Structures are given as C-alpha cells and as structure tokens.
C-alpha cells in the first residue's frame, strides 16, 4: 500500500528540511519527499493541514516492564503509549524480571515486540549479570542478539573497577555504556531532593552530590578508557557543569535529561505527592535552569522519557517512602518539550533533533529521518492543538504522572509506525 | 473558637491563635485531672482508634487515657509488620478503619506523610502521633503547655533544643510552635544531626553546647537513637555525651531558673546526666502529666469541628 502525506509542514533536521513537502510511503519505507503538490497520486492520503510532519521520535530510555512486570506495562501497551506520544523507536532498560543480561532475554523481547509491538523496540542490555555490579554480562552475544547499548539503569555500577572494565570492554563493539549516576551510600533511604522541602516534609533527602560524584567518576573512567559514556537522566546543575567540562576536554560523553527535570521542581512533591517521586529526584529552580541551559548549548544531547509506568498500588496507595519511583512519560514528552520552544530555550528543529536524530546517532540506529529509503516512521502533530493531560486515557498501563490536569500544546494526531497508521482525535 | 481543620497533622499548619486556644483548653482539662473523679462525659459515644505502626507505649497510653477521661470508646488497632509484608496497602488500612466507624484516628507511623494520606481518605479526625521525622504535634503542644505553666509568657524566651534535630519530629514540631509563639530557638548539635537547610527557619544553630545553652530559659534535650553512632552521625556515645550531654555543670551556663525538658524515654549518661534529669530544674515528669490534658484538649476541639 502507498500513502501520500500532504499539506503538512515537514521538518526533518537530518536532511535539513523545513517546509511544505509531500511524503510518499510505500509499504514500510519512505519512498520520497516531493515539493508541495508534486507528489504522486495514491489511494491513501493523509491530510496534514495545519500540522508538522516529523520523523518518529526516538526514546533512548524507557522501561517497558516486560518480561516480569506486565501488570505495570507490557511491550504491547508500552509501544502503544509510545506511538500515542509520537515515538516510533523505544529503547527499553534491562531491569525486567529476569534481567535482560543474556541473549535469551534479549531475543524474547525482540520476538515479543515483533509479534505485538506497535513500534520498534531496541533492548538495552545490562552491563553486569543480574545488574549486581559484580561481573560483566555477555555484551558480545547480547549485542549480536540485538542490544544496542548497555546499562544497569535503576542501579549504578558501584564498583569503579567493574565500570572501568565495562567502558573498556564495550570498545570492542563500539557500544554505549549508559550510566545511572547515583552514589547509593549518599542517597540511601532518600526519596526526594535533599533541602528545605525534605526537612519540612520530614522525608529523607537525596543530595545532588549523590548524582554528581558518580558523574565525575564516570567521566574520569571514560577519560581513562576511551569508552563511550552516556549519562542518563541528568538532574543537577553540578552534573551539567561536569559534562560540559568533560566535553570541552574531548572526552567521549553524551547526556540526556527528561521532561520532568526541566518542567518541575521539588515543589511538586509538596503534600507528599507520590506522582512526583522520581529517581533522581526533582531538584530546584537553579537546577531546572541549568538543565535548560545544558540543552541549549548541547551539553545535554538528548531528551529521553525515562518512562516508568507503575501500578496504582505501587504508586498511589502507599506511604511516600514505600511508593515506587517514576513517571509514565511517553504520552506527554513531546508536548512538555514544546515548552522549551515556547520559552525560547530550543528551536523547534533543535527539539526534534534531541528527540529523534540525535539519540539515533548516539545509539547507532538508522532512525530519526524522513530520508528516502528510511523506515516509514513519522508523526503528524498539531502544534497549536491543546489538550489536557488525563492519565485515565493513557494507553500506557502506568497512569502515574505529576502532569495530570496540565493543559499542553502539541497534540499528536497521527503516527505512522511499522507501516501502520495510528490516529486519534 | 474551634480549630480550622478536622485533623491535627502538624504544628506547621496551625496559627498562633489555634495553638493558644489548644493550650487554654488544656488548662481547663488539667483542672479536671486534678479532681477526685477524673472523668467527664464530654465525648460519650465517640470512638477513638489508636493506630500504631511503631511501638510507643508512652504516647499510645497517653492518648488512650486522654480518650477515656473524655468517656470515649478506645480501640487499639495494632498493625503488625507482618500484614504490611503481606502486601496490605495504606489505602486498605484506611478503609478498614473507616469501616470500624472511628470518629478519631490517632496515627503513629514510621513514614512521614501517612497522617496526611489518611486525612484525605477518612471522614474521621486524624491526629498525628508522630510520622517519620516529620512532626509530633501533641508532644510539642504539651511542651508549650509545660513551658507556659512556669514561664507565663512564651514570647521572648530563649529555648535551646539539643541533639538529633535531623531525625526528630519532636524538634520539628517544637521549632514551628515556639517560633510561632515568639520564642527564640537555638539548635545545638553536630552538623551531622542538623536537617538540610534548617536555617531557612528562624533558628540559630550552634555546634558548641556551651555557647548554645548560655543564657537559655528552656533547655530541651532530644533522645538519641542509640544506633545512630553505627551510622556515622557521631563517633561514639562517649564522645556525644562529652560534647552534647546535658550535665549539672553545663546547666549553670543557662539562666538560673532554666527549665530542663526531655520527650522521654531518657538515656541517662548519653543525652542527659542523672543530676540534670532529676534536678530541681527538671520538668520531665510534669511533661508526661501535661500530655494527658493537652491530648484531651485536642480531642475535644477536633470533635467540635465536625458538628
Ligand atoms: Zn535511571
């Protein structure tokens, strides 16, 4: 089947395109980009009037919970949520049960995604067996099975020597080591940012230094080994400064942040609001500004979601200390990112890059472009379309979001993924 | 005048007027407690549920007795750790309490914010009897009551709070209450036992015991959890006592009529020496008695909110 997408403003930073074009899709591939009204005649036409047409977004940090925690999310619901949010490629973290630390689990994820996934899923393998931080997992075999990067996300690799080995060994395959930066001794028992709010709520705080000492360590190890380091979910001013400095010194390091770290401060946890409980925790206004500055000057390369769906019993029906960390993020990420455009932090093109072509380049997948021959992954978004965040209507099983009730702009109207059209009102 | 909220979750949320109102009401109940027959029919037919997730014989007994003096029925609903381990959520617990038909729920829990959660779910009045390291409002109220009993006016007093402020809900509630009533509050202890950014509150912080208690009108020592030394907050109990223990000698640095207070149970020779704990300046046992009157006042005033 061929589809022509007409009347939209096509923005494809990878080809430096921004203008009114028509895009022809044949089967699961993009066959061409034509000037306005010059595309071929097809049976199926998507009218993208008043909308932007962009490469399908790429999330390099999500938790799909499958296998093992399907009551929180499954590959089917997670990829449906992705597509709903304009994402067509999702990298899933290995903290499943069993942990994705061997090729059997990797193959399981890929097979299941092939059968029921609404979009591409790229598994991220664990750095160490069982995410225990003790022995390297079989990176070579997992890479061959389909893992595109390695991370013990959810847990740091505490042992500096093992982290050194991981960065060294990963060079054989030229794969990324994604670091969840947290000094577990400094963060122990902590549930929110350490500061006046943690004091007034009587909750144990996680100091910014818990993140920063590990960022500093991992940068030192990346410098030592020449391995490719990627810092996950940057949340503090100090981390941004360390990464900026490392990049200036030519160290191979990239970084991501998530919408909640530039949209919210620790104030969101006031009143013991567990929907704003995330790890790393929401920080202060200063950190939010530093994260935005880092995005602006490309210290932070990527906006990822850290999509962390949870069941209501784990997230809302428990005391703050016992509630799970995380936000269900796939369905709000792009609209929250648009706030940066509104605020003049990023141009629209830069936002799209940080959510598609840049992450694709960092993990080394042929995504994030509408070029001829590329997979037919794209999103049609009405930038001025407003909607209210209603978690009950999320396609994700995780209804946990601190953005409930927020009025956002940038409604994803259609997503084309794996050659299929998904559309919403 | 009654209280604005149906619940008593913390001192943080109370106005100075509400605090004074509770203290004045407690004074009336203290007279009741001095009578031969210490029971009044004020809250007959009401039910108080004591819901304690952390063991605390003192606080629970005080609430229980306060409730009985007001002629309410009291149910002690203990939640053993095992049922939580089996996966009961806080919501389940709240709904169980609701089904028991409680008018008041007195809640003690190791996690901050649990009373706030219950208050949003329950129609009953929720009284915080200590949540994590957040607040312990009735303890602060009984402390204020005790200070007022011998000092008349709290405004302008200098109150020194010594020890583990970081983990102390008693300290936090007292800081809110004392500063709202116009006292000057000094916090004394090692930096490892001070909560983050506590200087955002109107308090002065001292690492030196001698400097901190000099000229103080009231000295409040806090209980040291004995396991803190293993967690690196200070090197040893001996060193803690040497630096921050309240002794008779150090007490001489305070005002001649300074009061010595402690929320109990005390660790003799760790946060306080026997001569200071049992000396003429000590009001530690008076605090316990006043706790009853204050808790009666709280139950009484909260019952008015709902009618
Ligand atoms: Zn993480």
Would you mind describing this structure in some detail?
- The complex is a heterodimer of chains A (425) and B (307).
- Chain A is built from 14 helices and 18 strands.
- In chain A, strands 1, 2, 3, 4, 5, 16, 17 and 18 form an eight-stranded mixed β-sheet that branches. An eight-stranded parallel β-sheet of chain A has the order 6-7-8-9-10-13-14-15, with helices on both faces. In chain A, strands 11-12 form a two-stranded parallel ribbon.
- The two termini of chain A are 23 Å apart.
- In chain A, 30% of the residues lie in helices and 24% in strands.
- Chain A is globular and about 65 Å long.
- Chain B is of the alpha/beta class and 307 residues long.
- Chain B contains twelve helices and nine strands.
- Chain B has helices at 16-33, 57-69, 81-85, 90-100, 114-121, 137-151, 169-180, 209-213, 237-244, 248-251, 274-277, 284-306, and strands at 47-52, 73-78, 104-109, 125-131, 158-162, 184-188, 203-206, 218-221, 259-261.
- In chain B, helix 2 links the parallel strand 1 (47-52) and strand 2 (73-78).
- Chain B is globular and about 55 Å long.
- The two termini of chain B are 13 Å apart.
- The A-B interface holds A 194-196, 198-205, 207, 271-272, 313, 316-322 and B 12, 89-92, 109-114, 116-117, 131-135, 169, 172, 195-198, 200.
- Bound molecules: zinc ion.
- Zinc ion is lined by residues 153-154, 180, 232-233 of chain A.
- Zinc ion binds next to loops of chain A.
